[in-house]
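INPUT
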Amino acid sequence: MAGHNTKKDAGNPILKRLLSSNLTWSVVALIVLIVICTIFDHGFLSLSWNENTGGLAGPLITMLQESARYLMIATGMTLVISTSGIDLSVGSVMAVAGAAAMQFLVSGLNVWLAILLSLLVGLVLGCINGALVSMLGLQPFITTLIMMLAGRGLAKVITAGQNTDAGSVAGSEPLRWMANGFILGIPANFVIAIIIVCLVGLLCRKTAMGMMIESVGINQEASRMTGIKPKKILFLVYAVSGLLAAIAGLFATASVMRVDVVKTGQDLEMYAILAVVIGGTSLLGGKFSLSGSAIGAVLIAMIRKTIITLGIDSAATPAFFAVVVIVICVMQAPKIHSLSAEIKRKRALKSEAKAVTA
Amino acid sequence: MTSASTTAVKKTAKKSRRLDAQMIPTIAAVVIFILMLVMGQALFGTYTRLGFFSSLFIDHAYLIILAVAMTLPVLTGGINLSVGAIVAITAVVGVKMTMAGIPAPIAMIVMILIGMAFGLLAGVLIEEFNMQPFIATLATMFLARGIASIISTDSLVLPEDNNFDWVSAEIKIIDNPKISNDLSFNMGVVIAVLVVIFGYILLHKTRTGRTIYAIGGSRSSAELMGLPVKRTQYLIYFISTTLAAVASIVYTANIGSAKNTVGTGWELDAVAAVVIGGTIVTGGFGYVLGSVVGALVRSIIDPLTSDFGVPAEWTTIVVGLMILVFVVLQRVVSAVGKKE
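OUTPUT
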């Protein structure tokens, strides 16, 4: 009897850790969605080699291609949220960066210069957010809401209200490759996104940066007392978020070489927040998981792919997402945790009682 | 004795000045509204016409209702992002029902009920599952918008002789022979005024209102004082979302059609109105009447920008900058208040 118990205890910790990790549930959800898609469309997992593009082709690959932009904005959003802030402007910054890049290309600018300048535009918008939040002490929610409104307007001003199309501009291959190309058969934008996520992760976890960001999120005043400069950290996270959103904007527009000033990046701030929440980062700040957000971002792309594969009307997408958010948040709620703990406790009591009677 | 009375006087004097300081954003909003009117009148000469006021109120009655709806959660430091989507789903359902020959009063009741259901859902998510108001109402926003899109993505037009007319039928008070100079209103405006009065009484004359301000000041303190925080939170999101359904009735009756994309971005307009009106976004301070002024400022931007020939794409930038100015003003005022 005793031996049996110890055996069980020894087997439990790994399983327990796996079960309690948000990461595990995200991966499980990802696998479930892939299985569902495969059932509906037997060719879902099939991969083929496309000679023309020099890369793999298949439904999963297009999913990865789409996930690159979510990876970028989710990474920026993770850092911002862990300082107990929020960046609602990522979608609009994407549109501005995309509009700038397309407009620069159409006006005959060198492609590398166009990429650089549009990234700079995103960085500047992020810096404005950062300056307003850190120096003026404005609420992140309101500050980035303003940037969300103004940024959408700015994108329209840049293109004079047109949906600028740079598809016919010669010499834009590097930008096209960024969105549609392949590295060793894997979508280039996905590889770039993963590299950037890893870089940010290294910067946060191999240096004290991540801890500083978290401490600002827990208590700004206390972190200042311990010698961290919260204002600098706040400025930095918003600037990084702006820059990453600009990269996402390039991914989104370069895949079709056309910016849609209304639709580019629309609702993407919501997807980014969703990816972060799925990844287990607390919206209250003070704790973040970049790998969780990364999986969350891929999961978002997978959900969208599932909707398309299942042939659900695209109009229903928001409702589908809402159900996912509600389910995930309800699962994470303390009430559910205490409820399951309660059930476990009762079970343990019962078995104990049984043991006693036996 | 004398010293005590003087300190008391000093205290009240200080208190009243402090209150004044916190009212500056609201006063600024009123001043800006008047300045915009004067500027419009000086440049275009149509801004003091009775007809202008009539259409300003008739066209933006829905925004005034939404501003009141948004004031409640913002006062507690929360937010209700679902108002725009609630307008969409209730409008689509209401018009669809009327098209199917269901009498308008029943359609309206169903619209209100849908609003109530979503408000209750938001309340449950926030209070029972500890979701942040931001995320909870984001979820209900997606849900409402998605269901509206599933029901129909077409532009639905109210049939002729529908009984929505009584809301939008214009009632003329002063019938001016000159064109566009009639002073008129419709039931939509009356409903908006009633909603404002309701909001004013709720916030300033009832215990619930006092609890709302207390939650905004500090939720844990309010709980420790034994105030019914949970019930009040339920009530806030319930009322807020139901008012969005009321706004939907007014708006739908006015324009006579509905689409699943109606109300996109209105939550931002409502937040803008609330912030311009002097409500502090961290909660605990603000007025319903301030939000009404904010809604009017937001409304008058539309005719101004079109008269100035500002390209439509600049409108959002102007609105964004205006909110920024007001938020910075609030920040400065509160910083000055703290120093004193």
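end of record. Chain A has one domain: 36-45+56-311.
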